[in-house]
Amino acid sequence: MNYCKIxxxxxxxxxxxxxxxxxxxxxxxxxSTGSLTTTFLNSLISAAISSQRQPIxxxxxxxxQLNIKKAIYSDLKTKxxxxxxxxxxxxxxxxxxxxxxxxxxxxxxKLTASVDSTAINGKYTISISNLAQAHSVRSDQQTSSTSxxxxxxxxTINGKTITVVSTDTLQNIANxxxxxxxxxxxxxxxxxxxxxxxxxxxxxxxENQITASxxxxxxxxxxxxxxxxxxxTTLQDAIDASFTVNGINVTKSTNTGIEGVISGVKLNxxxxxxxxxxxxxxxxxxxxxxxSKVSAFVSNLNxxxxxxxxxTKTIADTENKTYTxxxxxxxxxxxxxRMNIFSMLRTKVTSNSENExxxxxxxxxxxxxxxxxxxxxxKLDSAVESNIGAVKNLFDTIMxxxxxxxxxxxxxNESSNTLDSYSKSMxxxxxxxENRVKIMETAIKKKEEMLIKQYSSIYIQxxxxxxxxxxxxxxxxxTRA
Length: 481
Description:
Number of domains: 4
Number of helices: 7
Radius of gyration: 47 Å
Shape: elongated
Strand order of the largest sheet: 5-20-7-17-18
Oligomer: single chain
Distance between the termini: 26 Å
């Protein structure tokens, strides 16, 4: 700032008074004309505009609250849809979690099994005397696998004809066999081991043993595969699997996926049992799957109920005498939903008899004093083992009620979905606020432009006045000097 001392004559006496007048500045945008500066004028404009923006700030606060509600509706919809999916899994249908079975082998190294829902619960004693084998034969050893054999003719393997010409090698014959399309289950795989042509049936069992014959010429006889029409060297006989189930003898051509022996069960034979050794196969409800699904039901219930509670309750701060309201506080739709869920958990299923589970608490689902849902898995397992039909009916009845309760919140029909309707209402309100703010922002901008124009005019007038005053003082003092 540049200052100069200006002596101003007092209007009351001949005594000269020292006065300070700010006549200018350099190196800054803050041009000063006495006490009227650009900073001062800008502060006046800012103050005026700030007061004009108060309604906009309030509208933006309202918009923020609406967006919070909208996010809550979205979160709640996701939680309720997840819960509804689990409810559907626990509800009776053609195949629910309670229809799932599992098969447990006492020796998985020798026997495994898979089951479907038609399997009958029980224990099966199994012994395995033989595993099914695939038929395998070989030729005589040849001098080379890549030299021409000089053989002409035709032969059949499992009903399919193979043609050989004199320039064919052992490898050519193997390739011709492997490229042949055999009937299902009748395939033959050809390989060469130490210049021996090895033929192996793709399927095990006596019914799938290899058949072969020369139809023109004597290619197979010359190679040493056949001798007098029979296989010359058999590496492995075709053998059926033989085993007993609860003392009943069974033979099958395969070792895996054996059906029709135990209803609803597929057996996989892996190894023979020792003398007097048996394996116990237990078919039972899939306790692990049931436990997992019911646990997921309880966990999702707790998560959903806790979320609703947090968003609908009002928390009192007694020390500061203040209250904090949840975003959905006072919305009876959600408080009612929470209360109805708790009520439904205490539903009595009268279609079950008195000696059967009639409440969820009878299968281990309880509500503690803190309104947290608990699951006693041991009690659930015991109830399933004792009477799975009654447990299934219990869940079916209560889950059907749950589906009815949740339907307005999870339906894909947006016009009928409570949460979708709420979200749409939020979007409409947000859009309305944005339009109002846009109009108000335009008005404020015009107001600001008007104030700038007015204050600029005052500022220019002040500069001119200050300039004239300075010239007057300068003339006066120069004449006195």
